[in-house]
Structure formats: C-alpha cells, structure tokens
C-alpha cells in the first residue's frame, strides 16, 4: 500500500472533495467507506500496472513546516547508513520489509482495516528494537503473553509503547502506535509474532 501527504495552500483547502473525485476517477478502485474529510483512502487502486491501497492525507502547508514522522524514520535510517555502513542500512530495511510482510500475512498490518500499527508504525517498531524484526517480535511476544495466555490489551498498553519521534502531519501530535491497536489487531499481531518466533526457534535448533 502507499501513503501520501498532500500539502495545500490555505486557498486550496476547500478543493479537497474535488481533488478526491478526480483521484478516484484516475486511480480506479473504490473509496474506503470510512475515509474522512481531509483524507482519501482508495482500495484496489491501479498503480504501475498492479493494484494497491492508497491513503492520501490533505493538510495545510502551514501545519507541516515541522519535523514529521517520515522525516524521523528517514533520519534514523540515514544514521544507520552513516554510522554503520551501507550493509547495515540494507539489513535494517530488509528487517522492516520482513516485519511488514509477516504482519500483512497475519492480517495485523493496516491501521484501519486490521487494527494494526500501519506502515510508519511498523517502521518505528523495528527501528526501536535496533533494526531487528526478530527482536521486535520477541519483545512484543514477551509483553503480550503470560505463559500461553494472551494478556488483556489494556494491560499490554501500559507496558509496551512505540513512540513516534516525529509529528503526525494529520494530527499535529506524536503518536504512540500501540494506542492504534484494536482487540482483534492485537490478537492477530500476537499470534503472528508467536508463529514467526516458533519457526525461528525451530530453525535455530536444526542449524
């Protein structure tokens, strides 16, 4: 899926509905029934000869002259490249891609449809665990489970936080991505983490 922010001059802010209609006509697909004013979500849009979900947020230019979420992720990845080298940078990016793939397969990735962290949330999650998908899954599983029993989401949220060092351009605040989890998203994410770790541990024993 693709996430975009469109920065508008104040004079153009009233034209978002008109722009939405033009984009839907161009992209095809179908607008998501839950999209709100200032945001366009198109499911099954035609992108580069394939289909993908597209999320476009419209914000006033004056609201985004700040350090945004994607700026923070970019700088953290660039710091890895600068301090540890290109190979380490590529490894971290690969771990982010892996985490996204695993959560997509488990139905626990998208914020609105799945009740998950969403793309930027997963990126911050993996980066907060040293750029390791394995470490991210391990920390999530350790906090989510009490033995074989899944802890209540409310308790999990008290003990596990993923803070966005950048500013969400749509809300103007710093997100705690864990607050985005729904009950179902939490359960599916915990299951995905446990399933992946079981496979990783089995592979470690045979190697």
Tell me about this structure.
By secondary structure, the chain is α+β, with helices and mostly antiparallel strands. Helices cover 51% and strands 16% of the residues. The chain contains eight helices and six strands. Helix 2 crosses helix 3. The protein is globular. The protein starts with a strand and ends with a helix. The model has no long low-confidence stretch (mean pLDDT 85).
Topology at a glance:
Elements: E1 2-8, H1 16-27, E2 30-31, E3 39-47, E4 50-60, H2 69-84, H3 86-105, H4 111-114, H5 118-128, H6 133-144, E5 145-146, E6 149-150, H7 153-159, H8 183-206
Parallel strand pairs: 1-4
Antiparallel strand pairs: 2-3, 3-4, 5-6
Give me a quick take on this structure.
This protein has 207 residues and is of the alpha+beta class. The protein has helices at 16-27, 69-84, 86-105, 111-114, 118-128, 133-144, 153-159, 183-206; strands at residues 2-8, 30-31, 39-47, 50-60, 145-146, 149-150.
Helix content: 40-55%
N-end to C-end Cα span: 35 Å
Q: Measured on Cα atoms, how large is the radius of gyration?
A: 18 Å
Q: How much β-strand is present in the residues?
A: 15-25%
What is the residue-averaged pLDDT? 85
Shape: globular
In which order are the strands of the major sheet placed? 1-4-3-2
What are the key terms here?
globular, 8 helices, 207 residues, 6 strands, two-stranded antiparallel ribbon, four-stranded mixed beta sheet, alpha+beta
């Amino acid at each position: 899926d693709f996430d975009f922010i469109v920065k508008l001059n104040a004079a153009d802010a009233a034209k978002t509905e008109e722009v939405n209609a033009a984009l839907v006509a161009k992209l095809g697909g179908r607008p998501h029934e839950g999209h709100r004013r200032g945001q366009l979500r198109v499911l099954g849009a035609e992108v580069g000869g394939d289909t993908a979900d597209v999320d476009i947020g419209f914000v006033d230019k004056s609201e985004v002259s700040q350090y945004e979420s994607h700026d923070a992720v970019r700088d953290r990845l660039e710091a890895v490249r600068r301090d540890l080298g290109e190979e380490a940078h590529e490894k971290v990016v690969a771990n982010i891609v892996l985490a996204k793939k695993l959560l997509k397969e488990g139905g626990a990735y998208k914020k609105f449809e799945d009740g998950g962290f969403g793309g930027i949330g997963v990126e911050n999650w993996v980066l907060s665990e040293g750029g390791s998908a394995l470490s991210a899954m391990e920390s999530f599983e350790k906090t989510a489970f009490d033995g074989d029993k899944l802890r209540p989401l409310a308790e999990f949220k008290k003990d596990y936080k993923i803070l966005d060092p950048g500013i969400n351009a749509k809300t103007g605040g710093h997100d705690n991505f864990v607050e985005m989890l729904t009950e179902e998203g939490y359960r599916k994410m915990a299951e995905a983490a446990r399933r992946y770790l079981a496979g990783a541990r089995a592979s470690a024993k045979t190697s």
